[in-house]
Write a structure and sequence with these properties.
two-stranded antiparallel ribbon; 2 strands; mainly alpha; elongated; about 80% helix
Length: about 150
């Protein structure tokens, strides 16, 4: 059970580190750099503790339920992708209500300006779609399997 908790924690720490790297590259903020270094140290410590625990008692390796770990991680990745998509859509929607991004034509209809959807927002919505579909399908298939049959 200890190894299971360490692996789940390590998985989430990796996901957090990827998020921090993306945020740092987009903003070049010093706080994200320090957070990146912190997650790097935490990941290293978790990997060393997991390795030492497995070297001490290698029978724990056979007791790890990899399907459960993947299902839990896919659920959190799915929640993260949904949050990312919803926040991007909300930003675009708020921008569409801003009078700077539209004008009224001769017939009284709104004509949206060019900058209402930024290129990185469009690419975020397009490139996260395959991951959203794959991770969501895996998570929902395992969830239905648990609900119907009682196992992963």
């Amino acid at each position: 059970m200890f190894i299971f908790i360490l692996l789940i924690t390590l998985s989430f720490s990796f996901c957090l580190q990827i998020l921090v790297i993306i945020q740092y590259l987009s903003t070049k903020s010093e706080s994200y750099y320090r957070t990146f270094l912190g997650t790097f140290i935490i990941n290293t410590v978790l990997m060393v503790v997991t390795s030492i625990s497995l070297f001490r008692d290698s029978s724990d390796l056979a007791s790890i339920d990899l399907k459960l770990i993947l299902w839990i991680v896919s659920g959190f990745v799915l929640i993260f992708i949904i949050f990312l998509k919803v926040s991007t859509i909300v930003k675009i929607y708020k921008r569409s209500k801003d009078p700077l991004f539209y004008s009224i034509n001769f017939f009284g209809k709104k004509v949206y300006e060019k900058g209402i959807v930024k290129p990185h927002e469009f690419l975020t919505l397009v490139f996260t779609m395959p991951f959203f579909l794959m991770v969501g399908a895996y998570f929902l298939a395992r969830l239905i399997n648990i609900l119907l049959y009682g196992h992963l």
